[in-house]
UniProtKB/TrEMBL annotation:
SUPFAM superfamilies found in the cross-reference section: Rhodanese/Cell cycle control phosphatase (SSF52821), Winged helix' DNA-binding domain (SSF46785)
Superkingdom assignment: Bacteria
Family annotation (Gene3D superfamilies): Rhodanese-like domain (3.40.250.10), Winged helix-like DNA-binding domain superfamily/Winged helix DNA-binding domain (1.10.10.10)
InterPro entries linked: ArsR-like_HTH, GlpE_sulfurtransferase, HTH_ArsR_DNA-bd_dom, Rhodanese-like_dom, Rhodanese-like_dom_sf, Thiosulphate_STrfase_CS, WH-like_DNA-bd_sf, WH_DNA-bd_sf
Protein known as: ArsR family transcriptional regulator
Record-annotated HTH arsR-type domain positions: 6-100
One protein family per Pfam: HTH_20
Signal peptide, first to last residue: none
GO molecular function terms noted in the UniProt entry: DNA-binding transcription factor activity; thiosulfate-cyanide sulfurtransferase activity
Domain Rhodanese: 130-219
Length: 219
């Protein structure tokens, strides 16, 4: 095989990978699987797809190595593949940020995601975890929290936060996080907590990006 043939095959393979990812439903499925392994029925529920449609997309992702399966009794659970899938997803989000004016404006809006004036970067949070004196708050669902979360994080889903404020340590700064830079759960949580007099900041990215960076997680 000539060098030209090798290069052609390489880019053919890259094009095939791009085709596999070139569907919104598959990207949605990958984002949910990035939170932790789940059966097809739950993935269908989370994405609003039929089970048949979900299964079809998962098979495409499995053939390309983006997801793997394991059997748990009668259930088949899907998890991310062994490659740097989370890094690929983070790169796609980053490129979309760069290219799409709408997303750049969303990120720049103080009422949203990473553009909040009080957001905290991953590196800054790592420093804060070493020094302590703050409460790390995971506002995702209990299901997602159980599948994996940042070390030492307290889980209070946003929908339950109003009635569970007494569980938050008084006087400590709250660092809230959720699924990613455009997840509105932590934004809503931060708004509610600020209105109740808490000092609160929002992690600029979320759990999948933390895990993709190779940082420690608990489950």
């Amino acid at each position: 095989m000539t060098k030209t043939d090798i290069h052609t095959q390489l880019f053919t393979d890259l094009a095939e990978i791009a085709r596999t990812l070139g569907h919104a439903h598959r990207l949605m499925l990958l984002e949910h699987i990035a939170q932790g392994e789940r059966p097809v029925e739950r993935l269908a529920e989370l994405t609003g797809l039929t089970i048949a449609n979900t299964s079809q997309h998962l098979q495409h992702l499995r053939r390309a190595g983006f997801v793997e399966t394991r059997r748990d009794g009668k259930r088949v659970l899907y998890r991310l593949g062994s490659g740097p899938v989370e890094t690929v997803l983070a790169s796609l989000r980053g490129y979309a940020e760069h290219m799409r004016v709408e997303i750049r404006e969303l990120a720049a809006d103080p009422a949203n995601a990473g553009g909040r004036h009080d957001s905290i970067s991953r590196d800054e949070l790592l420093d804060r975890l070493r020094t302590g004196g703050m409460t790390l708050l995971d506002v995702r669902s209990a299901e997602e929290y159980a599948l994996g979360h940042l070390p030492g994080a307290l889980n209070i889903p946003t929908a339950e936060l109003e009635r569970r404020l007494s569980e938050l340590p008084p006087g400590q700064e709250i660092i809230a996080y959720c699924r990613g830079p455009y997840c509105v759960l932590s934004t809503s949580a931060a708004t509610l907590l600020e209105a109740r007099g808490f000092r609160v900041r929002r992690l600029a990215d979320g759990f999948p990006d933390w895990k993709a960076a190779g940082l420690a997680v608990e489950s």
